[in-house]
């Protein structure tokens, strides 16, 4: 069985993945002018925030928020490259690697 803190980390990762979903759907909504991606954006935004809030009951604010935004940032970066064919260059890849390194350090440094 997972302990409370382990469950909080699992929920936090899920919240971060939901952030990627809503960011992608928001891009596809064309400024909230298309119904389906607009609804997906709002639903996954609410789910992501709710899960983040739940994880924050057990995890420190700074750690939870940093990890949540980092997963969203790197996940959206990957979705942009893979699905939206956004440009890839060494500087963008280095930035993504540095974000991931920061997330790992934040996890290691968390009480």
Automatic annotation (TrEMBL):
InterPro entries: EmrE-like (IPR037185), Small_drug/metabolite_transptr (IPR000390), Small_multidrug_res (IPR045324). It is found in: Cell membrane. It comes from the Bacteria. The chain crosses the membrane at residues 7-25, 31-52, 64-84, 90-109. Its main location: membrane. It is a multi-pass membrane protein. SUPFAM superfamilies: Multidrug resistance efflux transporter EmrE. One of its GO terms (molecular function) is transmembrane transporter activity. Belongs to the drug/metabolite transporter (DMT) superfamily. Small multidrug resistance (SMR) (TC 2.A.7.1) family. Gdx/SugE subfamily. This is Guanidinium exporter. It comes from Acinetobacter brisouii CIP 110357.
């Amino acid at each position: 069985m997972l302990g409370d803190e382990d469950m909080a980390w699992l929920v936090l990762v899920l919240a971060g993945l939901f952030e990627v979903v809503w960011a992608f759907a928001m891009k596809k909504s064309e400024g909230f002018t298309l119904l389906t991606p607009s609804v997906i954006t709002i639903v996954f935004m609410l789910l992501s925030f709710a899960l983040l809030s739940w994880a924050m009951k057990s995890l420190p604010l700074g750690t939870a928020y940093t990890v949540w935004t980092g997963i969203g940032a790197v996940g959206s970066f990957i979705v942009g490259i893979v699905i939206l064919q956004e440009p890839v260059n060494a500087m963008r890849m280095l930035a993504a690697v540095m974000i991931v390194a920061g997330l790992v350090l934040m996890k290691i440094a968390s009480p």
